[in-house]
């Protein structure tokens, strides 16, 4: 049997190529549409100057016409008009329409020249023209966004930050730095520094540089001494060593990584998290909680040493916040440790901003076994001295296979079943589940829920 002709196998490949081309064209169109909408966003300080440019151009055109028609260029202007008249017949196109066409072409040329001039200037100062609009949008529109302060750690806090990033430039993350396991634990032990792992995740979530965000999370799979470390952890360790601590390197970090908002450690001093169990035991080091708790429960956690300093920038952010958010994240190892820094706890208690607790989706084996949602809220109250004003609770149902897998590992859904009336009255049930095979919050849905709870503000006029 002879081989089939080659062209018989080509149509599917050609079809795939055409499909890819069409998809890229659609993506380019969507990108152009998004950028056009960004240009037209209220408060950008762009439209008013474009309108002024058009108005001045038209006035200038009228002035030039007056000059040429009444001055020494009258003969030249007359010849120009006669030349345009000769190009078309008044029956086909009225003479004034020809003039409008010439004027429109001149205006388009003027806009094009300004755009090219801007590109040359931006490239001359080291800014990519493609990113200039994003920068203007971030500084103009997002600068009027909600002032949110979020306390927590782990992947939960970084998910929240990535959801808030498109909506505001005033997000401040206060990150728990008591982790003593993995890469963070090794760096803490070697350099006597705070744990950098959760800071790295948060910096990546708020970075305006996609390249840096990707590099920060890169984990070395080989290499003597660096295997298991992330690039971000090593970078923070380097800055801490170079500057004599991360507190002195905060400004450099935010500038280098182009952070949209701020990320601060809850404290700049190394501390050990200590769990106090129901059977009277204490466990030092959060990495030892899960394997050591056993059948007991964690009643409370403390930091050693207890009197830890907080950065002034952290306290200023809390004082000016319009919304304080706890979580999402592990109750005893991500959320509460940040509340154990005395100055932070005092600032939150004194703040008039609403305190919102984003409830975990599941209990965590070895940490919150057997605790109800009300138990979580009561634990926050005991450690902080202030109860949440609102509790965000997921209303989506977990897919059965996901719920079964988590149940097999000892984790169960946290919901309002059996909760007291006081919790029901302050709880808000909204769909927050990220689609997929893991029980985690959807960043966009979570950000939208927080923005819905934001206090109404009078619009502020932006200069220029």
TrEMBL record:
- Describe the task this protein carries out: Required for morphogenesis under gluconeogenic growth conditions.
Q: Where is this region: Disordered?
A: 1-30
Task: Give UniProt keywords alphabetically.
Answer: Cytoplasm, Membrane, Transmembrane, Transmembrane helix
Per the UniProt record, one Pfam family is CofD
According to UniProt, the name of this protein is Putative gluconeogenesis factor
Has keyword Transmembrane? Answer: yes
- Tell me which family the UniProt entry assigns to this protein: Belongs to the gluconeogenesis factor family.
Keyword set includes Transmembrane helix: yes
Instruction: Identify the species of origin.
Output: Deinococcus aerolatus
């Amino acid at each position: 049997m002879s081989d089939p002709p080659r062209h018989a196998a080509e149509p599917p490949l050609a079809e795939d190529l055409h499909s890819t081309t069409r998809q890229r064209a659609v993506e380019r169109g969507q990108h152009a549409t998004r950028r056009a909408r960004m240009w037209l966003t209220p408060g950008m300080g762009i439209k008013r100057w474009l309108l002024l440019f058009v108005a001045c151009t038209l006035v200038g055109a009228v002035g030039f016409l007056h000059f040429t028609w009444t001055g020494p260029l009258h003969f030249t202007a007359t010849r120009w008009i006669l030349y345009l008249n000769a190009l078309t017949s008044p029956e086909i196109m009225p003479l004034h329409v020809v003039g409008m066409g010439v004027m429109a072409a001149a205006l388009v040329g003027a806009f094009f020249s300004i755009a090219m001039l801007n590109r040359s200037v931006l490239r001359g100062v080291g800014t990519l023209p493609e990113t200039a609009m994003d920068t203007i949008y971030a500084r103009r529109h997002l600068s009027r966004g909600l002032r949110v302060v979020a306390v927590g750690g782990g992947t939960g806090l970084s998910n929240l930050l990535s959801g808030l990033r498109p909506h505001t430039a005033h997000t401040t993350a206060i990150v728990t730095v008591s982790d003593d396991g993995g890469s963070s634990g090794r760096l803490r032990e070697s350099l006597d520094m705070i744990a950098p792992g959760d800071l790295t995740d948060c910096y990546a979530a708020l970075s305006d540089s996609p390249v840096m965000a990707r590099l920060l999370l890169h984990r070395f799979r080989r290499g003597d001494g660096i295997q298991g470390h992330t690039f971000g952890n090593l970078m923070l360790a380097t800055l801490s060593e170079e500057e004599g601590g991360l507190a002195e390197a905060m400004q450099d970090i935010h500038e280098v990584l182009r952070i949209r908002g701020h990320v601060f450690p809850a404290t700049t001093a190394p501390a050990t998290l200590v769990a106090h169990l129901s059977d009277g035991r204490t466990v030092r080091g959060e990495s030892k909680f899960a394997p050591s708790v056993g059948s007991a429960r964690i009643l409370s956690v403390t930091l050693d040493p207890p009197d830890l300093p907080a950065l002034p920038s952290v306290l200023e952010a809390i004082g000016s916040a319009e919304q304080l958010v706890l979580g999402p994240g592990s109750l005893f190892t991500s959320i509460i440790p940040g509340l154990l820094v005395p100055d932070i706890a005092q600032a939150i208690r004194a703040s008039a901003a609403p305190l919102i607790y984003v409830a975990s989706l599941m209990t965590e084996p070895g940490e919150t076994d057997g605790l109800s949602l009300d138990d979580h809220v009561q634990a926050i109250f005991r450690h902080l001295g202030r109860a949440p004003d609102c509790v965000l609770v997921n209303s989506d149902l977990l897919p059965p296979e996901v719920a079964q897998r988590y149940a097999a590992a000892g984790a169960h859904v946290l919901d309002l079943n059996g909760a007291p009336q006081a919790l029901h009255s302050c709880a808000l049930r909204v769909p927050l589940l990220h689609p997929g095979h893991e029980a985690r919050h959807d960043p966009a849905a979570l950000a939208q829920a927080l923005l819905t709870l934001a206090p109404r503000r009078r619009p502020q006029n932006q200069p220029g």
